[in-house]
């Protein structure tokens, strides 16, 4: 089955490269042929399409263009035939995609930037007419560049808050913890490496044990010890409230974008 990726920005390029590495037959198209050729240069099995219409006949077409670019492609996309459309455009609902593409075989992906490392966390929502087999294909594609979760489309804004945008909150926390390490005498590159490996170790421990996060935190907190002092400082300085506000703000922005997309604003 051929998969055509339309758009070779950071996310489209990452997805195309990951799919080709996983053994899928992949072709790419970008209005900048140079960008498409750069992606193809990373994997000799990736073909470059000269025109958008050449994607016609692909088993799957992945729309990896920015949401603001998508409307300019709708008329051309109506002329393209495929078995399944997958869009990663944030804030563009299934109903809008179905109306403007002229197909009810549409799935939405919401990956995060870790697709670049083959470690994306991707939300999947499928239109009501997408078959079980098509859903399995979509899951297999998403799993080629990380983990994937089928969720209701109405929960996409929340998913964006905790994953799509949420990954940036982890980067911010990593940076600030590394800067604290600098303040205490550890050079930034070394401090960031230590923080990174600590984040990985925390995630792996939670994944392997299945324990909830607060139980694991409690295990680290010895009576009158160092960790409880640090946790108290986090709470005293509004850490929990700031994180919740960050997630909810990203979610609210996503809802705003989806509303504008629905009403053509």
Short description:
This protein is of the alpha/beta class.
Describe the structure.
This protein has two domains: 2-156, NAD(P)-binding Rossmann-like Domain (Rossmann fold), CATH 3.40.50.720; 164-256, ProC C-terminal domain-like fold (Orthogonal Bundle). The protein has eleven helices and eight strands. The protein has helices at residues 10-21, 33-42, 74-77, 94-101, 132-143, 156-164, 166-183, 188-209, 213-220, 226-236, 239-262, and strands at 2-6, 25-29, 47-48, 60-63, 84-87, 106-110, 120-126, 146-150. Strand 1 (2-6), helix 1 and strand 2 (25-29) form a beta-alpha-beta unit. Helix 6 (156-164) packs across helix 11 and helix 7 (166-183) packs across helix 8. The longest helix has 24 residues, at 239-262.
Task: Indicate the multimeric state.
Answer: single chain
**Category from helices, strands and their pairing:** alpha/beta
User: Which of globular, elongated, flat, extended, rod-shaped describes the shape?
Assistant: elongated
> What fold name stands as the CATH topology of the largest domain?
Rossmann fold
Structural domains: how many: 2
Spatial ordering of strands, largest sheet: 3-2-1-4-5-6-7-8
Please provide the count of β strands.
8
Strand residues, percent: 5-15%
Uncertain spans: none
Residue share in helix: 40-55%
Give the CATH H-level superfamily of the largest domain: NAD(P)-binding Rossmann-like Domain
What is the level 1 CATH name of the largest domain? Alpha Beta
Give me the Rg, rounded.
21 Å
Biggest pleated sheet: 8 strands, mixed
The number of helical segments is 11
Mean pLDDT score: 95
């Amino acid at each position: 089955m051929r998969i055509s990726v339309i758009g070779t920005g950071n996310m489209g390029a990452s997805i195309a490269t990951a799919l080709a590495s996983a053994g899928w037959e992949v072709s790419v198209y970008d209005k900048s042929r140079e960008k498409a050729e750069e992606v193809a240069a990373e994997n000799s099995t990736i073909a470059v399409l000269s025109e958008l219409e050449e994607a016609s006949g692909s088993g799957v077409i992945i729309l990896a263009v920015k949401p603001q670019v998508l409307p300019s492609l709708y008329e051309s996309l109506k002329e393209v035939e495929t078995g399944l459309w997958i869009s990663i455009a944030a804030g563009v609902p299934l109903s809008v995609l179905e109306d403007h593409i002229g197909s009810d075989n549409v799935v939405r992906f919401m990956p995060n930037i870790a697709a670049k490392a083959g470690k994306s966390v991707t939300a999947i929502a499928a239109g009501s007419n997408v078959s079980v087999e098509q859903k399995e294909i979509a899951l297999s594609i998403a799993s080629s560049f990380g983990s994937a979760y089928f969720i209701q489309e109405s929960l996409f804004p929340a998913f964006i808050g905790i994953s799509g945008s949420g990954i940036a909150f982890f980067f911010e926390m990593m940076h600030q913890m590394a800067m604290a390490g600098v303040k205490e005498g550890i050079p930034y590159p070394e401090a960031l490496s230590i923080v990174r490996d600590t984040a990985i170790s925390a995630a792996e421990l939670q994944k392997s044990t299945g324990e909830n996060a607060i139980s694991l935190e409690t295990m680290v907190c010895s009576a009158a010890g160092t960790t409880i002092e640090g946790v108290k400082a986090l709470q005293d300085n509004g850490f929990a409230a700031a994180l919740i506000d960050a997630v909810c703000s990203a979610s609210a922005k996503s809802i705003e974008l989806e509303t504008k997309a629905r009403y053509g604003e």
